[in-house]
Amino acid sequence: MTLALDTASPAAAAPRSRFWGKLLRNRTAAFGGGLVVLFALAAILGPWVLPWDPVQTSWSAVRKAPSAAHWFGTDELGRDVLARVLSGARASLLAGVVSVSIAIAIGGPLGIAAGYFGGWTDSIISRCTEALLACPFLILAIALGSVLGASLVNAMIAIGIAAAPLFIRLTRGQTLAVKTEDFVEGARAVGLPHRWIIIRYILPNIFAPILVQATLIVAQAIIAEASLSFLGLGQQPPAPSWGAMLNTGKNFVQQGQWWMSVFPGVAIFFTVLGFNLLGDGLRDALDPRES
Amino acid sequence: MLSFIARRLLIAIPTIILVSIFVFTLQKLLPGDPILVLAGEERDPVVIAALREKYRLNDPLPLQYIAWAWQALHGNLGISLRTNAPVLDLIAEKLPVTLQLAAMAMTFALLIGIPAGVMAAVRKGTAWDYAATGIALWGLSIPNFFLGIMLIFLVSVQFNWLPASGYVSLTESVSQNLRTMIMPAFVLGNALAASMMRHTRSAMLGVLRQDYIRTARAKGLLEPRVILRHALRNALVPVVTVGTLLFGELLAGAVLTEQIFTIPGFGKLIVDAVFNRDYAVVQGVVLCTAIGYIGLNLLADVLYVVLNPRLRTG
User: Fold this and answer.
1) A281 touching B (Cβ < 8 Å)
2) N or C: which end of chain B has fewer CB atoms below 10 A?
């Protein structure tokens, strides 16, 4: 045990600096990370910096094309599209991060329990996971969303529950691999309690793949939130959300009024692209086979 | 082979039972009492009690589940509150539309994803590889409802090449049906093409490193023959199985695509049901989708063994 504790800190420092070095040298990952930071800053600072209120209607400026006065144009109620896109970033990023946190909070402990204890615990959790995985992600989120009711918080809960099986499967597999390592066997041999073994030895060693998966699932969760909002099951008006903006914008596309759809759509695309690139970069940086 | 299929079928049974328990529980968690809806505005306590007795709602939950599952096994998934039609009939009516959309989307995905994946692997590290990988990333990051709206704007509004929405059934007019379905199918197949490209590229890179490919080249075979006959045939084994699994994802993707292009399919059925609080339909659609997905999983496993001779003899 002492050996394991001793090696944890100094040995971890070198791989950690190697990891950051690999991640920062990967230009696509850095670009992805930059996009994520940019949208996070826009979400936090946007509403303070911009002079327009995202929910303020103006009947004299209904459906105006992009101009110097309104860079992204205005919507069907005369609201500034740029202000709504930046405000929508808050809802989307929040939905992505919160729903993945919910999924990890549910999936992580169950996956670890299944992998670590095995036997009946594993059988029951694994069969239930397979059953939930049999329902396509979006259909499950829609069904749960319909039960919980239409709101951003409920959409986050629905997406979190729908994504939990992905984390159960991942943490179970990782725990199975780690629990046969010598340091875990050693910890068991000296009689450490299960709780301590899991917290001290299993969790730190399965953290990296969970982080990679979480980054990639944030991208899916953002699309899922936009999808639920597009269908009317997510953020409710007048609060802005990219999916709901696209839903309204689609009604005006056939009249050539593209700006109401293009800007929120492009925002979703670049945010999701950012998380996908960052997730791929994290995976490569943590993969020892990648030079 | 038959024993393998039988074994896989047996493994699928507990999963189906658990899915049915989940769907049943979902119904029990729903807000509101469906009996109050059935009892009408008068809400006569005698009628309510009779209805509760009729639908066995006074029974313990496990008994209610068994009765519900028994009915579902016999094809009775309940009655739609909105249309009064049996849920199974509604699903049977809408499913062919979505299956056609999914089949066309899969065709697009195969036609784009596999050649792009092969090209990216064969020319690894070149501009071809970067272009194909970039397009795949684009396909995975763009939400299909946004792509659909943009295509409507470009193809229908700007150039007037295809109708923006609407649906004409195959029996009415094949050409009109294809004109209304081609754009939604492309939108739905887009993300799938990106996944197929990634899987094909990865599988081809693995196969191209094998000794038998080196031997085929050393024998003096022409490169196209090495790639298509020796490498692609083996690389396609995992791609086919992954493609089978991804077909299930198309059903979920169809929810949004059908909404944008106003196609009266399976996806639109569940969205309309959610907004009309037609829970029997929501329940039926989730159950059927899950069972279909389990069936596709089974098919993928069987295909993997059928296509891989080493597993067949082992």
Assistant:
1) no
2) C
